[in-house]
Amino acid sequence: MSARWTTAVLDPQISGGWAVARGPDGFLVDDNGALFPRQWLKRQALDVLSEHGIGHFDGEPVFLLELRSAGEVAGCGWRGLRQFMLEGDFDTYKLLGYAAQIGTWAREHRFCGSCGQAMTQIHWERAMYCQHCDLRSYPRISPSMIVLVTRGDEILLARSPRFVTGVYSTLAGFAEPGESAEDCLVREVREEVAVEVKNIQYVGSQCWPFPHSMMLGFHAEYAGGEIVMQPDEIEDAQWFNVHALPPLPAGRSIARHLIDLYVARRLGLPEPVLPG
Fold first, then answer.
1. CATH number for the domain that contains residue 189
2. 5, 27, 179, 253: which sits with the fewest CB atoms below 10 Å from its CB?
3. Is 98 labeled as ligand-binding?
4. Does some domain include residue 177?
5. What are phi and psi of 72, to 5 degrees?
6. Which of 108, 134, 163 is the last residue of a domain?
7. Which domain holds residue 196?
8. Is 172 annotated as a binding residue?
């Protein structure tokens, strides 16, 4: 965790600090970024659904205003989280990524999943509470695996119809109940491209706030099979030589790190560090 940004459960009843505002169109921004003086932001005509104390940035408390709709604030606009990942300061992106996950969780847990009654926010822990059921709901994290499959100087990359035009990436998928990450990896690779793998090695992990994934990154070697693309999931999949790669994912993503790390090892270059 960066020294600039640390998570914490803060009581919204305390005063002061900074705040970010998140609505359907992303985060409110001005020329200085997405952090605003909290008291000033709360005086704006924003349709606030809930408020959450989420941590400290440079030692100052930070709060999230989760909005029902995107209002207008003079001199401000709205920016999606992916733009911060691609263009902005990485510490700010981590703050906003965490805020996005908390906002999504709070929005989706306004009502009890057991009885349907309204839930209340607990201020001393990150939980929503149903008094009727005595049920606590905590932020959701969805484990998933992401893997680079290699064959000597070749790497297996694929693209989904949802990807930016031309971009190829590693294979990925969510773990099913009862699966280990390795079981998930073998199944997903088999389902998406009909290839078998061996020598699975864990590389690292990355929080992926789109909306609440924990990406577990692996490297695996090709063991057999011909590429057969999964209908509706994989638009194209190919073996690419490390000297002739297609357009790749964003540089701060774990997908790009897996690719860059393997290419560096094959070419004898300095190994990159996974952004953390």
1. 3.90.79.10
2. 179
3. no
4. yes
5. -110, 130
6. 108
7. 142-267
8. yes
- For residue 126, is it within any domain? no
Query: According to the annotation, is 210 in a ligand binding site?
Result: yes
Task: Report yes or no on 259 lying in a domain.
Answer: yes
User: Is 130 annotated as belonging to a binding site?
Assistant: yes
- Find out whether 191 is annotated in a ligand binding site: no
Torsion of CA 161, 167, 173, 174, to 10 degrees: -90
Q: How far is it, in rounded angstroms, from Cα 276 to Cα 259? A: 17
Q: Is 112 annotated as a binding residue?
A: yes
Q: Are 173 and 258 found together in one domain? A: yes
Number of structural domains the chain divides into:
2
H helices of the chain, in order, are 38-42, 81-87, 90-108, 181-193, 254-267
pLDDT tens digits, the chain, 276 residues: what are they? 446 999 999 999 999 999 999 999 999 999 999 999 999 999 999 999 999 999 999 999 999 999 999 888 999 999 999 899 888 788 899 999 999 999 999 999 999 999 999 999 998 999 999 999 999 999 999 999 999 999 999 999 999 998 989 999 999 999 999 999 999 999 999 999 999 999 999 999 999 999 999 999 999 999 999 999 999 999 999 999 999 999 999 888 999 999 999 999 999 999 999 876
Known binder of ligand: residue 184? no
| Residues 168 and 263 both lie in one domain | yes
* Residue 192 annotated as binding site: yes
Is 206 labelled a binding residue? yes
Structure pTM? 0.89
Q: Output the CA torsion 46→47→52→56 (10° steps).
A: -20
Is residue 82 part of an annotated ligand binding site? yes
